[in-house]
Here is the input.
Amino acid sequence: MRKIYLVTALVGLLATVAAGPLTAQGVQGAASKQKAAAAPKAVAAGAPPAAAAPGAGAAAPAASSEATDDKAKAVDGFRSAKFGMNEADVRAAMAKDFNPKADAIKAQDNPSELTHSVLLTVPDLLPNGGTAELSYVFGYKSKSLIQVGAVWSKATDAAMTPEKLFSNANILRAHFLNEGFKPDSIAVNMPVAGGIVMFRGSDAKDRSVILLLQGTFENKENNQRVLTPTSLLLFYVADAKSPDVFKLPPGQF
Here is the structure.
């Protein structure tokens, strides 16, 4: 079972993408920062297993700024599981959404953030997208749902391929671009350390969705940086800037 080290990493990622794509804190517990070299533009739809990294500072299409109030996206959780629910209610929501076997939902604690998670493997969470693992994270103080994540990779599906990861990423990015997120919060195709933020957007309450394609970069001809993806991560976050995780009080050390 993989370890869930996502909430604090997302804080660094969100802040960095907002400021610019040259540095970023890696997701899944990577704490080091590194500079991302300049890269050519756009990941094309249906890209091959190794694809050029998009240019820095990619902006959302103009159509995103035309979202009206009645179409504005509200990021309140994932499907029937809503931010603020306790674990029992989230487990009931998971049962409603996916009808898992009794022993399919696993529990896991994060020893550094002091958060608690429940995990579920779901075939075709995205239609024809392969098997994903869902994680529902409960806050340190509130004990309520603060984040939902989905991961697609070889670890979740032995048949997963780079082509499938690119396809999933492109489908989800296109979907989110039409969902009515705050125009000034939207970023697409942002290179970060270890991958590309395919989409990031927030609603009126600053609850966020982040779609991250992780992998390895190689320098090819004409100094083109090429990403071979190894995983796709999707996060729904109640408060990416100040998550409910354990932090040492100031002045103790």
